[in-house]
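so my prof wants the structure for this chain in the C-alpha cells format not the other one, which i didnt know existed until like an hour ago. anyway here's the sequence
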Amino acid sequence: MAGAISGEGAGKSTQARLLEAALRAAGHRVLRTREPGGAPGAEAIRALLLGQGSYQGPWDGITEGLLHFAARREHVVRTIRPALDAGAWVVCDRFLDSTLAYQVFGQGMPRAVLDSLAGITLDGLWPDLTLVLDIGPEEGLARAAARGDANRYEALDPAFHARVRAGFRAIAAAEPARCALVDATAAPEGVAADILRLVRGRLAA
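here's what i got, hopefully its the right format
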C-alpha cells in the first residue's frame, strides 16, 4: 500500500489519481481511496470532521483523533484489507501519518493515545511507502482557497498549519525507509514523475 500525505493544497488527490493511472498502465490492479472516508461509515464521519454537518467544531484533540480512528477502522476492514487480500495495489490519499501530524503535532493529542488507537484499529496494517508532499502552508492554503471547496481544517490558524508541516517533515526524517519527502511546489506533471520514480524504485512497480 502506498499513501500520499501532506498539509492542505499540496495536490494529494491529483497525484493519487495520476499514480493510479500509471500503475494501471503497468498492468497492476489498483484501488484508489482516501481518508477520512473510503467506506460508507467512514464517509459519514468525514462529513463531521470536515465541518460539513450540523456541528462545525472545534473538538478536543483526543476527540478528533478518536473520530479519525473510527473512520479508519471502517476503511481498513471494509475497503483496504479486502483489496490487499485480493492482490490489488492500494493508493490511499492520507492514512495514519496524517493523524499523527494533524492531531498530535497540530492539536496536542498525546502520542501514546495515537499509538494505542493504532494498535487497536489497524491490525498491524502499515503503508509500504508513504509519500509526503511538501509545500509551505501559505502556498498550500492559497491553492486550496483557489479550488473553492475549503474545509474546516483550512480555516484553522497559520500556527496550526506550521505545526502540521513540521510534523510531516519530522515523520519523513524519522522513517526514511518507509517515507519519501516530495517537493510539491513543482508543476503536477513533474511531481507525478518524481512520485512514479520513487514507487518504481522502492516497490518495483
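also thought this was worth mentioning. Residues 2-203 form a domain with the Rossmann fold fold (CATH 3.40.50.300).
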